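Q&A log
Question type: sequence-to-structure
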Amino acid sequence: MRLFDLSGRSAIVTGAGRGIGRSIALGLAEAGCNLALCSRTPRELEEVAAAARGFGVDARAFPCDVTRPEEIQQAVEAAAEHFTRIDILVNNAGLTVKKPAEDYTPEDWRQIIDVNLTGVFLMAQAVGRQMIHQGDGRIINISSIAAETAITGSVAYCASKGGVKMVTRVLAAEWADRGIRVNAIAPAYTETPLVKAITDSRAGFADAIRQRTPLKRLGLPEEMVGAAIFLAADASSYVTGETIMVDGGWTAFGF
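Response status: OK
Response body:
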């Protein structure tokens, strides 16, 4: 058994146009996985698809907004028809709004919860139905250190990622006897466009993160790839309902 070989398998990756989603998509392609790439940015998806095809796999863009159930269903059905099956889902799409809790608007709250939590569930549900029909599959949700520890100025983000952790556990428990494994990856602050926008707007914030992190730096998007391949491959065949921290020691750190 080739524990880390994904040759011939097919994956849907959401938020695949940039950041962690892009890196995981290309990492899966390098491991031999065909790709259905989803996000609201078709141009970026086409660029990632072209790069993925350089590894000799089939990669197609299926633009969709994860807050719209009808677009999710259309994308999942199109991907399943094109690839005949969906072996892997990487639920990566996400966003945040940084502001004090007392200043959050209902619109801020709804937007973050809709994308980060409801969108994760709706995509997992749609792909999960396909995997139940197949009798196997692997779902990988991108969580965060915010599911484990309070991040000030991020009340909705923390709530959404805490929810992702529990959605991961419940789906893992419900679908284990259907041959479906559901796990999560929890990064710390990672050098993505989303995090760069935050660090650029707040003087000293990046330095504070480095000082708080035992490895004294932010993560890189490509450093999430190893955990994703492990969870997608046969190497993790007895792992479900778990969250792997990829956080430079952030959650292990005490005083």
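Response note: The beta strands are 10-14, 34-38, 59-61, 88-91, 137-142, 180-187, 243-246.
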